[in-house]
Amino acid sequence: MAGQQQVGVASAAGGSDPLPAFAAALFGHLPRADQRRWAQGYLQGLLSTPGKKSVRRLAAAISDSPTASQSLQQFINASPWEWDPARKELTRYVEQRGAPRAWIIATAVLPKRGGHSCGVHRRFVPEAGRTINCQLGIGVFLSLGELQLPVDWRLMLPEQWNADERLRERARIPALARHRPLWAHAADLAATLARRTRHTPAPVVADMSDHTDVAQLIEQLHRQGRAMVVSVPPGMGVCPATARTTAAHLGAHSPGGARQFLYQHSTRHPHVVTVTTPEHGQRHIRILSGLIRLPGTAHTLRIFTQWRPSLQRPARVWVSNLLDARLDELMALAQLHTRTRATMTHLEDECGLLDFEGRSYPGWHHHMTLVSAAYAYSRLCAPASAAAPPLPRTA
What we know:
Blueprint: H1 19-27, H2 33-48, H3 55-62, H4 68-77, H5 84-95, E1 102-111, E2 121-125, E3 130-144, E4 147-155, H6 160-163, H7 165-170, H8 182-196, E5 204-207, H9 214-224, E6 228-232, E7 237-240, H10 247-252, E8 256-257, H11 258-266, E9 271-277, E10 281-293, E11 301-306, E12 317-320, H12 327-334, H13 336-351, H14 361-380
Parallel strand pairs: 1-5, 5-6
Antiparallel strand pairs: 1-3, 2-3, 3-4, 6-12, 7-8, 7-10, 9-10, 10-11, 11-12
Helix pairs in contact: 1-2, 2-3, 2-14, 3-4, 5-14, 8-9, 13-14
């Protein structure tokens, strides 16, 4: 057809690059041929454009057409395509490489200027040590070998975005998309992934040490029947598992903080385990551990942390419902969250995680879907050299 822009990438070996087949597998559900072409083009741009991945720079990397930037912007921000089918196919693609060891839930802070980008708000960010203007994304990553691969996302909508119809209309927020607490988004990601996976559901690993609503997430994951390893704030209330067992009694019990519990019950007899870390290889560490219940609940959880006596306090505190698992297995699962932080950095530096320029709710989800797909492609099937020729100029 005259005016169509085709995507083609030659591999270093001279054969065809797997990108077209990869793009077709994830985005073949799109109803229009131009949508499918621009999905592949956006992927190609994310993979081949150095530095900031603005729409203009992506378009210049894949086409010499003067209208490519406008077309790419239209595809991301205005074209009404569904992202859930692509994320389902991305999950399937990753799982074809093997059963995930864990499902890791993590947050992504996306700094923004102004107040019109969908879900933008002021938030204190512990890593930055200050309050910034940002969006907050919640993602789920499949842990596969040394890789952590994102396959699904939620966007936090602050409460002020519930009632302001002008903001909602301008950002094209669907009627059913409302403010939900972070724990609800995390639980929904786990439930959605459980419906999509073709393997036995993996343990959910979540770093919630900076979030006060972690008890709600733990309870919801328990109701879903999920195996879990979840970090908690050190002052979160816990009860000894030996406390009287009815929910009423536990609700009346005066709980101590999680860190205080470990100090009082575990420091005399720490467990020594051997763990393998990406940074240090195999090493021996001491673990403080005990059995607890959360106030108002009747199910038993294991609480544990690495003991660092030189600091005179435990490190990050974790709870798990995997009561029969060895402590070295639990600590190995807990330490996967450090790899997810590294993956976030790669997503920012290599795949344009922070570079979405639009303001709409669909545009954000489109971009995050394509960023996740680009990262999976780069780690699982990219050729050694992916120098892409430009698309031909439109007639």
